[in-house]
Write a structure and sequence with these properties.
Number of helices: 1
CATH topology: Porin
Order of helices and strands: HEEEEEEEEEE
Strand content: over 45%
Structural class: mainly beta
Number of strands: 10
CATH class: Mainly Beta
Number of domains: 1
Distance between the termini: 54 Å
Shape: elongated
Length: 265
């Protein structure tokens, strides 16, 4: 009896591996490429700088700062905001998209850094105070997806809310004139960057953008003047303005579109 049991066990040991070899092998899981298609929303944070070449214009100007006076004004700082858009990923892995974003900005500088010294009287100094408070863009996006890595460029239209208040001092340091300016500038924008899908529907991005607003004549309102430039006067200034922005951010992708094509083997 014991011999029969041993023989049976031996048969099971020999036959079981053979049976297992006959079973179909379990296919490895299919890893789909990152899906860039559809709507997405996200946030961003970064910094930038405004560069403004200001030329005094118009017929109302002081002796110390006549028409044709040129000032180079700069201010920089931080920004943060939100963005939303839609991507179309093509079978070739090229993609097209559209995106809108809005940023709260705080571009400021010390007025002394932009001081303009009169060529007539070096003791008379104008102290501009350029600032940027809001930025917005609507752009088309285009690029190529290397699975989770997306390289993109963008171009479109941009807006900036700017102010440029200034005060002028004399030899004693006393303020002899103050003026204020607030304007919404519009112009073209272009940039590019990289975006990386890192977990399910999430991605992170880094980009740099340029905003060009061209030349525009704006009026500064004199809030406190003198006999030469009375209170309530409008001083005309030609502003040639551009803004540079660098920002990083994140996006959540809803994938409300077709998934990217995957080859079958």
């Amino acid at each position: 009896m014991n011999k029969l049991i041993y023989v049976g066990l031996a048969a099971v040991v020999l036959v079981a591996p053979a049976r297992a070899a006959d079973l179909p092998a379990k296919a490895p899981p299919v890893v789909l490429p990152f899906n860039w298609n559809g709507f997405y929303v996200g946030g961003h944070f970064g910094g930038g700088q405004i560069n403004d070449t200001v030329t005094f214009a118009g017929t109302l100007n002081s002796i110390n700062f006549p028409a044709g006076t040129v000032a180079k004004e700069n201010a920089g700082g931080l920004l943060g905001g939100v963005q939303a858009g839609y991507n179309w990923q093509l079978p070739s892995n090229f993609f097209l998209g559209v995106e809108g974003d809005f940023s709260f900005a705080d571009f400021t500088t010390a007025p002394t850094l932009n001081a303009i010294v009169s060529q007539v009287d070096p003791n008379v100094i104008s102290h501009p105070d350029p600032r940027v408070t809001d930025l917005a863009t609507i752009t088309g996006r285009f690029g190529y997806a290397f699975d989770k890595l997306l390289l993109f460029g963008k171009a479109g239209w941009g807006w900036a809310r700017t102010t440029d208040n200034a005060f002028t001092t004399d030899a004693t340091g006393a303020t002899i004139l103050t003026q204020t300016l607030s304007a919404t500038r519009s112009g073209w924008t272009a940039g590019g960057g990289v975006e990386l899908g890192f977990w399910q529907n999430w991605s992170v991005k880094f980009e740099g953008d340029y905003m060009g607003f061209g030349k525009r004549t704006l009026g500064s309102f004199v809030t406190s003047g003198n006999a030469e430039i009375p209170t309530g006067s409008i001083l005309l200034r030609e502003h040639d303005t551009n803004i540079w922005v660098i920002k990083g951010g994140f996006n959540y992708h809803f994938n409300w579109g077709a998934a990217p094509l995957v080859a079958n083997y």
